[in-house]
Amino acid sequence: MARTYNRGAGDLFPPRMGFRPVARQHSGVLRALSDTPLSPEELSQLDKNHLWHPYSGMPAAAEPLTVTDAQGVRLRTRSERYGQRELIDGMSSWWAAIHGYRHPDLDEAVRRQLDHVGHVMFGGLTHEPAVRLAASLVEITPDPLRHVFPADSGSVAIEVAVKMCLQYWRGRGRTGKRRLLTWRGGYHGDTWHPMSVCDPEGGMHHLWRGALPEQLFAAAPPAGFDAEVERDYLEHFEELLRRHHEELAAVVVEPIVQGAGGMRFHSPEYPRALRELADRYEVLLVFDEIATGFGRTGELFAADHSGVAPDVMCVGKALTGGYLSMAATLCTTRVAEGIARGSVPVLAHGPTFMGNPLAAAVACASLRALLEKDWRTEIGAIESGLRNGLSPVRELPGVRDVRVLGAIGVVQLDHEVDTTAASRAAVEHGVWLRPFRDLIYTMPPYVIGPEDLATVTEAVRAAAAAG
Ligand SMILES: *Cc1c(COP(=O)(O)O)cnc(C)c1O
Q: Which GO biological process entries does UniProt record here (predicted)?
Protein backbone atom coordinates (compact mmCIF):
# COMPACT_ATOMS: atom_id res chain seq x y z
CA MET A 1 0.00 0.00 0.00
CA ALA A 2 1.24 3.46 -0.82
CA ARG A 3 2.67 5.34 2.12
CA THR A 4 0.84 8.49 2.97
CA TYR A 5 3.11 11.06 1.41
CA ASN A 6 -0.24 12.21 0.06
CA ARG A 7 -0.71 15.89 -0.48
CA GLY A 8 3.08 16.02 -0.50
CA ALA A 9 5.57 15.67 -3.27
CA GLY A 10 3.94 12.34 -4.27
CA ASP A 11 0.71 13.97 -5.39
CA LEU A 12 2.39 16.62 -7.42
CA PHE A 13 4.92 14.37 -9.05
CA PRO A 14 3.34 11.05 -9.96
CA PRO A 15 5.95 8.58 -11.26
CA ARG A 16 6.87 9.47 -14.82
CA MET A 17 7.96 7.54 -17.85
CA GLY A 18 11.68 6.90 -17.66
CA PHE A 19 11.82 7.63 -13.96
CA ARG A 20 12.47 4.52 -11.92
CA PRO A 21 12.18 5.13 -8.22
CA VAL A 22 14.21 2.92 -5.92
CA ALA A 23 11.33 2.77 -3.47
CA ARG A 24 8.16 3.26 -5.44
CA GLN A 25 6.11 4.66 -2.59
CA HIS A 26 8.62 7.52 -2.20
CA SER A 27 8.65 8.45 -5.87
CA GLY A 28 7.36 11.97 -5.24
CA VAL A 29 10.10 12.62 -2.71
CA LEU A 30 12.77 11.31 -5.00
CA ARG A 31 11.46 13.55 -7.77
CA ALA A 32 11.53 16.50 -5.39
CA LEU A 33 15.11 15.62 -4.45
CA SER A 34 16.29 15.00 -8.02
CA ASP A 35 18.44 17.38 -10.05
CA THR A 36 15.56 18.16 -12.41
CA PRO A 37 14.50 21.76 -11.81
CA LEU A 38 10.98 22.32 -10.53
CA SER A 39 8.75 24.25 -12.86
CA PRO A 40 7.70 27.66 -11.47
CA GLU A 41 4.15 26.33 -11.02
CA GLU A 42 5.30 23.21 -9.16
CA LEU A 43 7.57 25.26 -6.93
CA SER A 44 4.96 27.80 -5.92
CA GLN A 45 2.33 25.11 -5.38
CA LEU A 46 4.63 23.10 -3.10
CA ASP A 47 5.69 26.22 -1.25
CA LYS A 48 2.09 27.21 -0.70
CA ASN A 49 1.03 23.75 0.46
CA HIS A 50 3.86 22.96 2.83
CA LEU A 51 6.18 25.80 3.79
CA TRP A 52 5.80 28.26 6.58
CA HIS A 53 7.39 31.67 6.02
CA PRO A 54 8.23 34.15 8.81
CA TYR A 55 5.15 35.45 10.64
CA SER A 56 2.84 33.94 8.02
CA GLY A 57 -0.31 31.93 7.98
CA MET A 58 -0.71 28.53 6.36
CA PRO A 59 -1.19 29.03 3.50
CA ALA A 60 0.48 32.45 3.35
CA ALA A 61 -1.65 35.40 2.24
CA ALA A 62 0.80 36.56 -0.44
CA GLU A 63 2.88 34.60 -2.92
CA PRO A 64 6.59 34.93 -2.11
CA LEU A 65 9.02 35.84 -4.87
CA THR A 66 11.31 32.98 -5.82
CA VAL A 67 15.01 33.89 -5.71
CA THR A 68 16.96 31.96 -8.31
CA ASP A 69 20.31 33.73 -8.00
CA ALA A 70 21.91 36.66 -6.30
CA GLN A 71 25.02 38.66 -7.08
CA GLY A 72 26.40 41.81 -5.50
CA VAL A 73 23.42 43.84 -4.27
CA ARG A 74 20.99 42.18 -6.69
CA LEU A 75 18.50 39.38 -6.25
CA ARG A 76 17.27 37.64 -9.38
CA THR A 77 13.64 36.77 -8.74
CA ARG A 78 10.76 35.07 -10.46
CA SER A 79 7.08 35.20 -9.74
CA GLU A 80 3.74 34.88 -11.43
CA ARG A 81 2.96 38.56 -10.94
CA TYR A 82 6.24 40.08 -12.12
CA GLY A 83 7.88 37.32 -14.15
CA GLN A 84 11.67 37.52 -13.97
CA ARG A 85 12.99 40.58 -12.18
CA GLU A 86 16.30 41.79 -10.85
CA LEU A 87 15.80 43.59 -7.58
CA ILE A 88 18.28 45.60 -5.53
CA ASP A 89 18.23 44.19 -2.01
CA GLY A 90 17.35 47.08 0.28
CA MET A 91 17.20 44.78 3.31
CA SER A 92 20.61 43.01 3.28
CA SER A 93 18.58 39.87 3.99
CA TRP A 94 17.53 41.24 7.39
CA TRP A 95 20.75 43.11 8.31
CA ALA A 96 22.99 40.17 7.43
CA ALA A 97 24.34 40.37 3.86
CA ILE A 98 26.62 43.36 4.46
CA HIS A 99 28.95 42.44 1.58
CA GLY A 100 26.12 41.58 -0.79
CA TYR A 101 25.83 38.17 -2.42
CA ARG A 102 28.46 35.86 -3.83
CA HIS A 103 31.36 37.89 -2.52
CA PRO A 104 34.40 36.09 -3.98
CA ASP A 105 36.31 35.97 -0.66
CA LEU A 106 33.33 34.67 1.29
CA ASP A 107 32.47 32.10 -1.38
CA GLU A 108 36.09 30.99 -1.36
CA ALA A 109 36.20 30.70 2.44
CA VAL A 110 33.27 28.27 2.42
CA ARG A 111 34.77 26.24 -0.44
CA ARG A 112 38.18 26.07 1.21
CA GLN A 113 36.68 24.95 4.51
CA LEU A 114 34.67 22.25 2.70
CA ASP A 115 37.97 20.70 1.64
CA HIS A 116 38.78 20.20 5.34
CA VAL A 117 35.59 19.55 7.27
CA GLY A 118 32.03 20.83 6.88
CA HIS A 119 30.93 20.15 10.41
CA VAL A 120 32.12 18.35 13.49
CA MET A 121 30.79 18.33 17.04
CA PHE A 122 32.31 20.92 19.37
CA GLY A 123 32.21 18.86 22.56
CA GLY A 124 35.79 17.76 23.23
CA LEU A 125 36.89 18.93 19.77
CA THR A 126 37.94 22.26 18.35
CA HIS A 127 39.09 23.69 15.03
CA GLU A 128 40.88 26.62 13.52
CA PRO A 129 37.91 28.60 12.12
CA ALA A 130 36.21 28.77 15.54
CA VAL A 131 39.43 29.71 17.32
CA ARG A 132 40.29 32.42 14.79
CA LEU A 133 36.76 33.80 14.97
CA ALA A 134 36.68 33.93 18.77
CA ALA A 135 40.07 35.67 18.92
CA SER A 136 38.93 38.23 16.33
CA LEU A 137 35.66 38.95 18.10
CA VAL A 138 37.44 39.50 21.40
CA GLU A 139 39.82 41.88 19.66
CA ILE A 140 37.18 44.09 18.02
CA THR A 141 34.43 44.18 20.68
CA PRO A 142 34.56 46.49 23.73
CA ASP A 143 37.53 45.69 25.87
CA PRO A 144 36.60 43.61 28.90
CA LEU A 145 34.67 41.09 26.75
CA ARG A 146 37.03 38.13 26.60
CA HIS A 147 35.10 34.88 26.25
CA VAL A 148 32.95 33.72 23.34
CA PHE A 149 30.10 31.24 23.18
CA PRO A 150 29.24 30.44 19.53
CA ALA A 151 25.47 30.01 19.17
CA ASP A 152 23.30 28.88 16.27
CA SER A 153 21.22 32.03 15.90
CA GLY A 154 20.57 35.38 17.47
CA SER A 155 17.72 34.10 19.62
CA VAL A 156 19.92 31.33 20.97
CA ALA A 157 22.66 33.85 21.70
CA ILE A 158 20.17 35.76 23.87
CA GLU A 159 19.09 32.54 25.62
CA VAL A 160 22.76 31.89 26.38
CA ALA A 161 23.21 35.45 27.65
CA VAL A 162 20.29 34.97 30.03
CA LYS A 163 21.74 31.68 31.26
CA MET A 164 25.11 33.33 31.79
CA CYS A 165 23.55 36.04 33.93
CA LEU A 166 21.41 33.68 36.01
CA GLN A 167 24.31 31.29 36.53
CA TYR A 168 26.58 34.18 37.48
CA TRP A 169 24.27 35.24 40.31
CA ARG A 170 23.75 31.66 41.35
CA GLY A 171 27.52 31.28 41.59
CA ARG A 172 27.53 34.32 43.86
CA GLY A 173 24.85 32.80 46.06
CA ARG A 174 22.25 35.35 44.92
CA THR A 175 19.67 32.86 43.69
CA GLY A 176 16.83 35.39 43.93
CA LYS A 177 18.28 37.39 41.04
CA ARG A 178 16.42 35.78 38.15
CA ARG A 179 14.32 38.42 36.42
CA LEU A 180 15.23 40.74 33.58
CA LEU A 181 14.69 44.46 33.12
CA THR A 182 14.41 46.02 29.68
CA TRP A 183 12.82 49.00 28.00
CA ARG A 184 9.81 48.94 25.73
CA GLY A 185 10.22 48.93 21.95
CA GLY A 186 12.83 46.16 21.94
CA TYR A 187 13.22 43.01 19.88
CA HIS A 188 15.44 40.14 20.99
CA GLY A 189 14.31 37.10 19.03
CA ASP A 190 11.53 34.55 18.81
CA THR A 191 12.45 31.80 21.27
CA TRP A 192 10.94 31.85 24.74
CA HIS A 193 13.18 33.96 26.93
CA PRO A 194 14.10 36.44 24.19
CA MET A 195 10.36 36.85 23.52
CA SER A 196 9.82 37.76 27.15
CA VAL A 197 11.98 40.88 26.72
CA CYS A 198 10.52 41.88 23.35
CA ASP A 199 8.14 44.83 23.40
CA PRO A 200 4.92 43.53 24.99
CA GLU A 201 2.76 44.86 22.14
CA GLY A 202 5.08 44.16 19.22
CA GLY A 203 5.82 40.75 20.75
CA MET A 204 2.10 40.05 21.22
CA HIS A 205 2.54 39.17 24.87
CA HIS A 206 -1.24 38.96 25.26
CA LEU A 207 -1.05 35.75 23.21
CA TRP A 208 1.26 34.17 25.78
CA ARG A 209 -0.11 35.53 29.03
CA GLY A 210 0.51 33.09 31.86
CA ALA A 211 3.05 31.13 29.82
CA LEU A 212 5.79 33.67 29.16
CA PRO A 213 8.13 34.69 32.01
CA GLU A 214 7.03 38.13 33.21
CA GLN A 215 9.88 40.57 32.98
CA LEU A 216 10.09 44.17 34.05
CA PHE A 217 9.58 46.93 31.46
CA ALA A 218 10.69 50.54 31.58
CA ALA A 219 9.20 53.01 29.09
CA ALA A 220 10.87 53.09 25.68
CA PRO A 221 13.99 55.27 25.65
CA PRO A 222 13.27 58.83 24.43
CA ALA A 223 13.67 58.96 20.66
CA GLY A 224 16.43 60.67 18.72
CA PHE A 225 20.12 59.90 18.36
CA ASP A 226 20.95 63.61 18.77
CA ALA A 227 18.25 64.39 21.30
CA GLU A 228 19.12 65.84 24.70
CA VAL A 229 19.11 63.23 27.42
CA GLU A 230 15.94 63.31 29.51
CA ARG A 231 16.77 63.20 33.22
CA ASP A 232 13.20 62.18 34.05
CA TYR A 233 13.62 59.08 31.96
CA LEU A 234 16.79 58.07 33.78
CA GLU A 235 15.05 58.70 37.07
CA HIS A 236 12.20 56.41 35.96
CA PHE A 237 14.69 53.69 34.96
CA GLU A 238 16.58 54.04 38.22
CA GLU A 239 13.37 53.79 40.21
CA LEU A 240 12.70 50.34 38.71
CA LEU A 241 16.22 49.25 39.65
CA ARG A 242 15.89 50.70 43.14
CA ARG A 243 12.68 48.77 43.75
CA HIS A 244 13.56 45.49 42.03
CA HIS A 245 17.34 45.02 42.02
CA GLU A 246 17.17 42.17 44.53
CA GLU A 247 15.25 40.07 42.00
CA LEU A 248 16.99 41.33 38.85
CA ALA A 249 19.75 39.35 37.14
CA ALA A 250 20.29 41.68 34.20
CA VAL A 251 19.25 44.65 32.14
CA VAL A 252 18.89 43.53 28.51
CA VAL A 253 18.71 46.20 25.79
CA GLU A 254 19.59 47.00 22.21
CA PRO A 255 21.98 49.97 22.39
CA ILE A 256 21.36 53.01 20.10
CA VAL A 257 19.01 51.32 17.59
CA GLN A 258 15.96 49.27 18.47
CA GLY A 259 15.49 47.18 15.34
CA ALA A 260 12.46 45.00 14.66
CA GLY A 261 10.75 46.49 17.72
CA GLY A 262 10.19 49.76 15.86
CA MET A 263 13.42 51.02 14.24
CA ARG A 264 13.86 53.70 16.90
CA PHE A 265 17.16 55.48 17.63
CA HIS A 266 18.19 56.92 20.97
CA SER A 267 21.02 58.98 22.41
CA PRO A 268 24.33 57.29 23.30
CA GLU A 269 23.80 58.83 26.75
CA TYR A 270 21.26 56.13 27.66
CA PRO A 271 23.50 53.07 27.30
CA ARG A 272 26.16 55.07 29.17
CA ALA A 273 23.72 55.79 32.00
CA LEU A 274 22.55 52.17 32.03
CA ARG A 275 26.16 51.08 32.58
CA GLU A 276 26.42 53.27 35.67
CA LEU A 277 23.03 52.25 37.02
CA ALA A 278 23.69 48.54 36.47
CA ASP A 279 26.91 48.81 38.46
CA ARG A 280 25.31 50.84 41.22
CA TYR A 281 22.46 48.34 41.68
CA GLU A 282 24.50 45.18 41.13
CA VAL A 283 22.73 44.03 38.00
CA LEU A 284 24.50 42.73 34.89
CA LEU A 285 24.21 44.65 31.63
CA VAL A 286 23.51 42.76 28.40
CA PHE A 287 23.77 44.50 25.01
CA ASP A 288 21.98 42.88 22.12
CA GLU A 289 24.08 43.94 19.11
CA ILE A 290 22.66 41.29 16.82
CA ALA A 291 21.25 43.93 14.45
CA THR A 292 23.63 46.79 15.18
CA GLY A 293 26.97 44.98 15.11
CA PHE A 294 29.66 45.15 12.41
CA GLY A 295 29.36 48.76 11.33
CA ARG A 296 25.67 49.18 10.61
CA THR A 297 25.20 52.26 12.83
CA GLY A 298 28.42 53.98 11.71
CA GLU A 299 30.54 52.53 14.53
CA LEU A 300 31.78 48.95 14.54
CA PHE A 301 29.41 48.26 17.44
CA ALA A 302 26.60 50.51 18.67
CA ALA A 303 28.16 50.42 22.16
CA ASP A 304 31.13 52.31 20.67
CA HIS A 305 28.90 55.39 20.25
CA SER A 306 28.55 55.39 24.04
CA GLY A 307 32.08 54.28 24.82
CA VAL A 308 30.89 51.70 27.31
CA ALA A 309 31.14 47.92 27.52
CA PRO A 310 28.40 45.57 28.67
CA ASP A 311 29.03 42.50 30.83
CA VAL A 312 27.52 40.29 28.15
CA MET A 313 27.09 41.06 24.47
CA CYS A 314 25.30 39.20 21.67
CA VAL A 315 26.23 39.42 18.00
CA GLY A 316 24.69 37.63 15.03
CA LYS A 317 23.05 38.53 11.72
CA ALA A 318 26.00 40.19 9.84
CA LEU A 319 28.50 37.98 11.70
CA THR A 320 28.73 35.54 8.76
CA GLY A 321 28.07 38.20 6.12
CA GLY A 322 24.64 36.60 5.79
CA TYR A 323 25.98 33.28 4.52
CA LEU A 324 25.18 30.85 7.34
CA SER A 325 23.36 30.90 10.63
CA MET A 326 25.70 31.74 13.47
CA ALA A 327 25.69 34.14 16.40
CA ALA A 328 27.83 34.54 19.48
CA THR A 329 27.53 35.57 23.11
CA LEU A 330 30.56 37.28 24.61
CA CYS A 331 31.17 37.92 28.29
CA THR A 332 33.76 39.36 30.63
CA THR A 333 36.14 37.34 32.76
CA ARG A 334 34.20 38.45 35.83
CA VAL A 335 31.03 36.81 34.46
CA ALA A 336 32.92 33.65 33.42
CA GLU A 337 34.51 33.38 36.87
CA GLY A 338 31.16 33.89 38.57
CA ILE A 339 29.70 30.98 36.58
CA ALA A 340 32.71 28.82 37.46
CA ARG A 341 32.08 29.41 41.18
CA GLY A 342 28.58 27.90 41.00
CA SER A 343 27.54 24.48 42.25
CA VAL A 344 27.33 23.58 38.55
CA PRO A 345 30.56 25.27 37.46
CA VAL A 346 29.96 24.97 33.70
CA LEU A 347 27.89 27.04 31.31
CA ALA A 348 24.86 24.82 30.81
CA HIS A 349 24.49 25.05 27.04
CA GLY A 350 25.86 23.07 24.08
CA PRO A 351 24.03 23.09 20.76
CA THR A 352 24.61 20.30 18.23
CA PHE A 353 25.93 22.67 15.59
CA MET A 354 27.94 24.83 17.97
CA GLY A 355 30.89 26.54 16.29
CA ASN A 356 30.07 25.10 12.86
CA PRO A 357 33.34 25.29 10.86
CA LEU A 358 31.74 26.50 7.62
CA ALA A 359 29.92 29.31 9.42
CA ALA A 360 33.01 30.23 11.45
CA ALA A 361 35.21 30.23 8.34
CA VAL A 362 32.87 32.50 6.42
CA ALA A 363 32.47 34.72 9.50
CA CYS A 364 36.27 35.17 9.56
CA ALA A 365 36.25 36.02 5.85
CA SER A 366 33.40 38.49 6.36
CA LEU A 367 35.22 40.20 9.24
CA ARG A 368 38.38 40.44 7.17
CA ALA A 369 36.47 41.88 4.19
CA LEU A 370 34.97 44.47 6.55
CA LEU A 371 38.09 45.42 8.48
CA GLU A 372 40.40 45.49 5.45
CA LYS A 373 38.42 48.27 3.85
CA ASP A 374 37.58 51.78 4.93
CA TRP A 375 34.17 50.75 6.23
CA ARG A 376 33.67 53.99 8.11
CA THR A 377 33.89 56.07 4.93
CA GLU A 378 31.76 53.58 3.03
CA ILE A 379 29.00 53.68 5.64
CA GLY A 380 29.34 57.47 5.89
CA ALA A 381 28.67 57.67 2.13
CA ILE A 382 25.57 55.48 2.51
CA GLU A 383 24.43 57.65 5.41
CA SER A 384 24.59 60.84 3.34
CA GLY A 385 23.00 59.07 0.36
CA LEU A 386 20.13 57.99 2.58
CA ARG A 387 19.78 61.46 4.09
CA ASN A 388 19.70 63.15 0.68
CA GLY A 389 17.42 60.58 -0.89
CA LEU A 390 14.96 60.30 1.98
CA SER A 391 14.64 63.90 3.16
CA PRO A 392 12.01 64.80 0.47
CA VAL A 393 9.90 61.88 1.75
CA ARG A 394 9.24 63.96 4.86
CA GLU A 395 6.92 66.15 2.76
CA LEU A 396 4.64 63.29 1.73
CA PRO A 397 1.21 63.20 3.37
CA GLY A 398 0.95 60.53 6.04
CA VAL A 399 4.68 60.54 6.84
CA ARG A 400 5.36 61.08 10.53
CA ASP A 401 9.15 60.83 10.62
CA VAL A 402 12.21 60.18 8.50
CA ARG A 403 15.40 59.16 10.28
CA VAL A 404 18.82 57.95 9.22
CA LEU A 405 21.74 56.57 11.19
CA GLY A 406 24.74 54.92 9.56
CA ALA A 407 23.47 52.57 6.86
CA ILE A 408 19.90 52.53 8.21
CA GLY A 409 17.13 54.63 6.67
CA VAL A 410 13.64 54.68 8.18
CA VAL A 411 10.36 56.25 7.08
CA GLN A 412 7.64 56.10 9.69
CA LEU A 413 4.05 56.72 8.61
CA ASP A 414 1.25 57.99 10.84
CA HIS A 415 -0.72 54.82 10.08
CA GLU A 416 -0.21 51.12 9.49
CA VAL A 417 1.54 50.53 6.13
CA ASP A 418 -0.44 48.78 3.43
CA THR A 419 2.43 46.32 3.12
CA THR A 420 1.17 44.74 -0.09
CA ALA A 421 0.87 48.07 -1.90
CA ALA A 422 4.17 49.34 -0.47
CA SER A 423 6.14 46.20 -1.41
CA ARG A 424 4.64 46.27 -4.90
CA ALA A 425 5.62 49.89 -5.39
CA ALA A 426 9.18 49.01 -4.36
CA VAL A 427 9.34 46.04 -6.73
CA GLU A 428 8.03 48.24 -9.56
CA HIS A 429 11.06 50.44 -8.83
CA GLY A 430 13.38 47.43 -8.92
CA VAL A 431 13.97 47.20 -5.17
CA TRP A 432 13.27 44.59 -2.52
CA LEU A 433 11.87 46.08 0.70
CA ARG A 434 9.85 44.54 3.48
CA PRO A 435 7.79 47.15 5.32
CA PHE A 436 6.13 46.30 8.63
CA ARG A 437 3.74 47.99 11.04
CA ASP A 438 4.02 51.75 10.32
CA LEU A 439 7.57 51.47 8.92
CA ILE A 440 9.23 51.43 5.52
CA TYR A 441 12.94 51.08 6.01
CA THR A 442 16.15 50.08 4.33
CA MET A 443 19.54 48.84 5.45
CA PRO A 444 21.33 48.09 2.19
CA PRO A 445 24.49 46.02 1.77
CA TYR A 446 27.56 48.20 2.43
CA VAL A 447 28.83 47.52 -1.10
CA ILE A 448 25.91 49.37 -2.71
CA GLY A 449 27.00 52.10 -5.16
CA PRO A 450 25.55 55.64 -5.26
CA GLU A 451 23.27 54.97 -8.24
CA ASP A 452 21.76 51.84 -6.75
CA LEU A 453 21.36 53.64 -3.45
CA ALA A 454 19.44 56.43 -5.22
CA THR A 455 17.18 53.75 -6.71
CA VAL A 456 16.60 52.35 -3.22
CA THR A 457 15.64 55.72 -1.72
CA GLU A 458 13.39 56.39 -4.71
CA ALA A 459 11.70 53.03 -4.06
CA VAL A 460 11.29 53.86 -0.36
CA ARG A 461 9.61 57.11 -1.40
CA ALA A 462 7.32 55.27 -3.82
CA ALA A 463 6.52 52.66 -1.16
CA ALA A 464 5.71 55.39 1.36
CA ALA A 465 3.43 57.08 -1.16
CA ALA A 466 1.67 53.80 -1.99
CA GLY A 467 1.57 52.40 1.52
C1 LIG B 1 17.23 39.36 14.62
C2 LIG B 1 17.48 39.72 16.01
C3 LIG B 1 17.49 38.75 17.02
C4 LIG B 1 17.20 37.30 16.76
O5 LIG B 1 18.12 36.71 15.89
P6 LIG B 1 17.73 35.39 15.09
O7 LIG B 1 19.00 34.99 14.41
O8 LIG B 1 16.63 35.77 14.15
O9 LIG B 1 17.29 34.39 16.10
C10 LIG B 1 17.76 39.17 18.31
N11 LIG B 1 18.00 40.47 18.59
C12 LIG B 1 18.00 41.43 17.64
C13 LIG B 1 18.30 42.83 18.01
C14 LIG B 1 17.73 41.09 16.33
O15 LIG B 1 17.69 42.04 15.39
A: biotin biosynthetic process
> Of 309, 338, 372, which residue is a domain's last?
372
Clarify whether 317 is annotated catalytic.
Answer: yes
Q: Could you give the CA distance from residue 377 to residue 264 in angstroms, rounded to a whole number?
A: 23
CA-to-CA separations, 363 to 105, 113, 203, 325, 433, in angstroms, rounded: 11, 12, 30, 10, 25
Q: Residue 153: CB within 6 Å of ligand 1? A: yes
- Check pLDDT > 90 for residue 273: yes
The answer to whether 434 is a known ligand-binding residue is yes
- Angle (CA) 425-410-82 rounded to 5° is 20
Q: Is 328 in the pocket of ligand 1 (CB under 6 A)?
A: no
13 falls within a domain: no
Residue 155 to residue 132: CA distance in whole angstroms: 23
Tell me if 48 is assigned to some domain: no
From the CB of 27, is ligand 1 less than 6 Å away?
no
Residue with CA nearest ligand 1 atom 7: 154
Q: Are the beta carbons of 286 and 189 closer than 8 angstroms?
A: no
174 plus 321 within the same structural domain: yes
Q: Which run of H or E residues covers position 313?
A: strand 312-315
- Whether residues 271 and 414 share a domain: the answer is no
Pick the residue whose CA is nearest to atom 6 on ligand 1: 154
Would the pLDDT of 191 be above 60? yes
Query: Is 288 annotated in the active site?
Result: yes
Q: What is the pTM of this model?
A: 0.94
Is the domain of 156 the same as that of 300? yes
Three-state SS at 348:
coil
Q: Shortest CA distance to 301 belongs to which of 458, 100, 423, 145?
A: 145
Is 37 flagged in the annotation as binding? no
> Distance (Å, rounded) from C-alpha 418 to C-alpha 412?
13
Does the CB atom of residue 188 touch ligand 1 within 6 A? yes
Q: For residue 395, give the CATH number of its domain.
A: 3.90.1150.10
Collapse the DSSP code of 75 into the 3-class scheme (helix H, G, I; strand E, B; otherwise coil) and give the result.
strand
First to last CA, the chain: 52
Could you tell me the CATH number of the domain that includes residue 180? 3.40.640.10
Distance CA 9, CA 241 (A): 56
- Residue 60: its pLDDT value, please? 85
Residue 304 annotated as part of some ligand binding site: no
- Cβ atoms of 268 and 306 closer than 8 Å: yes
Q: Is 446 a catalytic site residue?
A: no
